[in-house]
Amino acid sequence: MLRTRPDDRRQPDRADEPGGWTGRVLLIGGTSEIGLAILIALRLSPAAEVLLAGRDTGRLEAAAAALPCPATVLRYDATQRGSGPALATAAFRDGPVDLVISAAGVLTPQNLLDEAPDEAGLLIETNLTSHVTALLALTARMRAAGHGTVVILSSVAAVRPRKANFVYGAAKAGLDAFARGLADSLHGSGVRVLLVRPGFVIGRMTAGMEPAPLATTPEQVGAAVAAGLAGRASLIWVPASLGPVAAAMRLMPRRWWRRLRR
Question: Mean pLDDT of all residues in the chain?
Answer without folding.
Answer: 89
